[in-house]
Design goal:
The structure is a homodimer of 456-residue chains. The first copy, chain A, is built from 18 helices and 15 strands. Chain A is of the alpha/beta class and 456 residues long. The A-B interface holds A 7-9, 11, 13-14, 80-82, 92, 110-112, 114, 151, 154-155, 173-174, 177-178, 180-183, 375-376, 379-385, 420, 422-423, 425, 428-429, 432 and B 7-9, 11, 13-14, 78, 80-82, 92, 110-112, 114, 151, 154-155, 173-174, 177-178, 180-183, 376, 379-385, 420, 422-423, 425-426, 428-429, 432.
Amino acid sequence: MTRQEIPYKIYLTESEMPQYWYNLRADMKNKPAPLLNPGTHQPMTAEELSGVFCEELVQQELDNDTREYPIPQEILDFYKMYRPSPLVRAYCLEKKLKTPAKIYYKFEGNNTSGSHKLNSAIAQAYYAKKQGLKGVTTETGAGQWGTALSMACAYFELDCKVYMVKVSYEQKPFRREVMRVYGASVTPSPSMTTQVGRKILEEHPGTTGSLGCAISEAVETAVGNPGYRYVLGSVLNQVLLHQSVIGMETKIAMDKYDIHPDIIIGCAGGGSNLGGLIAPFMGEKLRGEADYRFIAVEPASCPSLTRGVFAYDFADTGMVCPLAKMYTLGSDFIPAPNHAGGLRYHGMSPILSQLYDDGMMEAVSVPQTRVFEAAETFARVEGILPAPESSHAICAAIDEAVRCRETGEEKTILFGLTGTGYFDLVAYEKFHDGKMDDYVPTDEELASFRARLPRI
Amino acid sequence: MTRQEIPYKIYLTESEMPQYWYNLRADMKNKPAPLLNPGTHQPMTAEELSGVFCEELVQQELDNDTREYPIPQEILDFYKMYRPSPLVRAYCLEKKLKTPAKIYYKFEGNNTSGSHKLNSAIAQAYYAKKQGLKGVTTETGAGQWGTALSMACAYFELDCKVYMVKVSYEQKPFRREVMRVYGASVTPSPSMTTQVGRKILEEHPGTTGSLGCAISEAVETAVGNPGYRYVLGSVLNQVLLHQSVIGMETKIAMDKYDIHPDIIIGCAGGGSNLGGLIAPFMGEKLRGEADYRFIAVEPASCPSLTRGVFAYDFADTGMVCPLAKMYTLGSDFIPAPNHAGGLRYHGMSPILSQLYDDGMMEAVSVPQTRVFEAAETFARVEGILPAPESSHAICAAIDEAVRCRETGEEKTILFGLTGTGYFDLVAYEKFHDGKMDDYVPTDEELASFRARLPRI
């Protein structure tokens, strides 16, 4: 088709919108390994999990078989507020790069949370409401997930308690303020509101907190308050299920205009965006119906797929959560403090880890100054100021497009633009002021974290 | 039609998009009064204006007759990046208010500049490029306009010099940083880079600047640098012409689904958004083809339409710009320092001023705590965090919808949601912390500013 026939931005009509989430696990020959009880090292049962998570979400978490989950009408109604997200042809970027490649991106940033996180937040809030709960607890680092969950809870009139890593709470007051607009209570972590928080503050009075600690506080608060459950924004199988809406929309739009992506690229922290974007395409590949190259892009400073090991590890530094088999750097790994670009998680979605181990997808890592260079190039020609996380995918997409320029191949490249960088301008400032460096952990450092992995 | 037939959000297809701007002046019986030379008090000639503005923009500024301006292809191409903007039915807000009214809003915030300002920025940058200029200068207060212009200049590879009111430069480093991403040079005003800046700094060493001073610095820099012109983001006739794209899209979408708005509401600072939104509807009213109620909403702390006078006044506090006949509070009026919500301009678009004086539209003013209450209500049910400016329109739309609940009338209300509030969270914080008050200028204060109006 010609440019005239394919719109610049493809928006599905309401009748074209996906009506179900696609459960990638149903088509995986090697299923993701089960979560293990941190005490007994036995697979977590539904009963054990339902003390922490909502019942229907536990069922989704454990279900390796059901291929399609109809999306509840209440969630479809909410999706209408900000979905479909546009699938955009990056004509201006192609021109700038002088590449024969065709570049498309699926843009998830056009909602107040600023990212794709809202897709799962609204689902998790819905099931909490349906179960008659009073509220949910969670942790947030930079604040994207906390914002998304606050919006979802406001919509369903659920209470929302967010533990925000103290350093972010203090340095990102605007994120905190958005959550307050949506009625969430935001507590800097570690705090005096939990046992684990008090213990950490006693041992490390000056600590600025960590995601691991915030998770532990959120879990403790959920378990200790009747009518509350804990929710998580990435890594889990249920989250990838909800995020499949990204890939479903993308696939419907591409099929409609007969576009076949050769390469599909996404940034990967916990894996929720990448897992969602690739889901239906990976399904075709698993079923032998089509072939695609999938590329996970991670920061060189936190390289779980490219330099981690595939092993059981704790999901949190507090080691209270179930063990997950995943590519990991070790649960006490923390990226260098100068690392500005999100994607700081030590592990990776068990589903994506299994697919990577099975050779179904590739992974690359990129240093952060290159990421910000790509971000700025993209912003200037395509208009959108991208989140640092998303810019990892931009960077890899540009690399592939430049390769096409060199070989003359007219490949079609699709990448996920997960969000906007409006709350990441401190990082952009560092980049402009030349205060950003590209520290990469040494092999020795990684080995020392690896040595502390649980022996299972 | 039923809800099933009208989409929740209406996006025009590419073939439905407006191909021309509509020049409202062509249908006005009483044309807006001409700009006057501040020295001679004679109407500004095209030659005089072209020292400051691009030639084609001067022509647009002075043209009261041409009804339709075809939008140049280069601008249509840029519009494709972020237009069409969605026309949204506010089902959730209606439900929350228990109103029989149907509420629609046209949302202009889904672009990195965060507002409708980009519609005119790209047009002004295009004509500057076409004229072979090196760059443009402008002023910015809160930073919305400066951001929009930076994006437009990056796209056309034009230099962009922004004078940013010093207090905003210091308090809004993120806005400044976005402009840097797009390659603009941002100078805090007053600065040592201009004569007028040096003079002001000498007289008031500790000043934090004002929009009027920044305008004067930007104009001086444009006039003193070969290959540069000055551009402005509101008030001018040319800006309303470009912004008519908002109303054109809205009208096409509403006509497609046979929706007739009874009331059309927009916030009004300089008037660019309101003038753009109402343009084609007002055209119908002026030609006697249809009737609508138009409501301009302004802050009670800066009430140019509701408490100002219709008179010739300076556009800037430095009194170097042409005189415009408009509703004004006096060019040295500055709203109370606690005023958080934008819309701080002392005057109003000459086009809108004339229409208001002719009884073609209404105006109301609202106190700022009510504006933020409306903003929060809207954010929680409709998802989008609105800009304080836009929230003035939300506030008035809610008032009309509540009136419908009381009378049982099923009116159709349309309002302009001009932008997002991601860079206005300091104001939201003040609101949440109870530190916002509703200072309104007294009659005596307004009279004292009025007494200093130029006598023409």
